[in-house]
Amino acid sequence: MKNHWSVRKLVAFTLRSGDIDSGFLSHKRAQEGIRLHQKLQRAYPPSFESEVEISGTVAYDGGEIHLEGRIDGVDENAHLLDEIKSTVYTKEAIDERPDELHWAQLKCYGYLYAKAKDLDEVHLRLTYIRIEDEDVFRYEKCLSFDELNTFMDEVMARFQRIQKRLTDFEALSLASAKALNFPYDNFRPGQRDMAVAVYNMIQTEGTLLAQAPTGIGKTIATLFSAVKAVGEELLEGVFYATGRSTQKTVATETLALLREKGLRIKSTELVAKEKACLNDVLSCTPQDCPYAKGHYDRLLDGMTDIYDHADLFDGPTVARYAEKHRLCAFEFALDLSNLSSILIGDYNYVFHPKSYLERLMEDRDRLKATCLLVDEAHNLIDRGRDMYSDSLSVEELEAVDYPTKKIEALADDLADKIRTVSSAEDRTYDGLDDDFSEAVEDFIDEAASFLARLKKEPDEDFLELYFRLLDWQNLNLYYDETRFTFFVPEKNKLQLLCLDPSQVLSARRELFQSAVYFSATLSPMDYHGHCLGAGEARKTMVLDSPFDPAHLLILHPPHLSTRYKDRERTLSEISRYLQAFSTTREGNFIHFFPSYAYKNQVYSACQAWEESGHDQARAMTEKARADYIARFRNERPVHGYSVMGGAFSEGVDLSGEALMGVSILTLSLPGLSRERELIKNRFNQLGKDGYAYAYTYPGLTKVVQAAGRIIRSHSDRGQLLLLDDRYLRPDIRNLLPAHWRIETVDSVDDMIEKINAFWR
Fold this sequence. Notes:
seven-stranded parallel β-sheet, about 750 residues, 29 helices, single chain, alpha/beta
């Protein structure tokens, strides 16, 4: 980690104290704060300059750091520094409880400014503006340089407890990364090519889309190259973004392997709050959680302890030290991310409009020295759409008990406006009238004012609605009529739909030094490159499968339809094919379906012969999912009945006898819906093949991913059954992997004969 720190980061790191309290104030509207911030800056007199960059070197016992910041306003003549903060609190509330972190930030600016200008004293002004009524109140102090110097000495005394560790570890880490060798004796075929391409892309600070087949070892190829780039000081950090917890596990296991081979690098796994929580109840207030109460008073001890004894801050390790020091494990990991060169976390931490990792995504200097690795990148397209889509309904507004008549009247007004725009189903709008947004704003302002005055816990339903409307307004800031639309799925409900996520995803990617999107399924590249927002200058690579195609028997009865209109008619024949496919040779199989409804229909039809059925429930906990997979590793025979695109068709490694075969029923195209039709029409307008973008490409991606569960190593052999009468159509066959050798079968007996021949 380089010795460059922002003032805000330094202050938060060294001076926070007391409790964690995730009250509503932590969710205030950042965009509204920015607007008011800029309004005050525009009102500065001519003697003021806005957004003044300040930097300087600060010494501490054993070293020095380079500190950087941006002062909201500076009057050079009066040597006056102004820091602006938006708030929902009244002046009386702030008088009673001043925010010491706000003053600490301003004092740091004052120290740097006075030192740079060789001043004996400097004037500091803290300006607050209330969000709901734009009331402005100011506080001023005149501090001597000696007072500011004493303050900085106190800050640095706390800082050096961790900074000395960072400095001492950095040389060791860089040397180990530079000397690191590939952890295996040999690269798998194609794996070295991928590793070299990743390293070269980091060197050129570009973007790479890499399609590499399942089993090639994509995780080690990307992480190893990125670590080598850190060792060569081409990078300072890596963010490994995943869509599933199973993929995070693979990444942390890969880093553990590299550590066994001599790598010393700090890395943090970011775990969702619900999974990280050590308390009996997920309630992040000091009244309800002993880990939240006094968390910041114990944080520095916890951080120095874990830093001295571990390199990989994965979920279990963080939980162990959090328990030892009585810390919130979730917040503990977030702070550890500041001390880590490698971060592993969900897509949300990078791409989500609200849930992104502030410690990384708002540190532009750090981002420009960080490589983004996006695992199973094909999943990010629909995830991106979901992140930037939302809805409002009359029903949710009517379900809340409002605390005041005025707030209730504002809610009624908003409900009336939703009724007006959603009076007819299946309608779209390129935009909404200003009075709709103003109605949302009026409710938010009044609710915020009420919550700021409240002395007790607010009603949960009311608070949830408040947050929902904040999210709605936040998403509207990203609205672009070429990529979004407003849609009425049913009366009295309005949706904001992100049809094409390319622009919002691209904006996040551009913040990073370089990016690598990788998956077993990125074909066609034009589709994935566009929807992922990878940019026109992107490089692409497609690697062939390293495994012998003869090890995979692919069977297809072209006469058998699994289309919705034919499912009842072909049900009994489907059952006979599945029986023969999974019992001709004893072993473990998974049958994948496009929906729970079709899965349940077929599973019921198979009960006459099925003795090894293992059904996927609609809602499963993480433990239940782990238990589901464990049966395949520990038992035989097991016949799984699962849903495509779910937890078991991607990111699951069942090598050897753990899985002998997979059947896939239908092309797994997304179900016909008005939302999908809107996506199709929008891409047609953009000159693309709308049907392919909305249906065909996403569906066949799921097919290839599910089939990839079978062959995981050079010694694996297995069988694949494709059940849908469209697989041999040229437009479909051309999108499937070129090395797939599909054998047609005309009957169950013919299939049994081919299976027996394959295994002889």
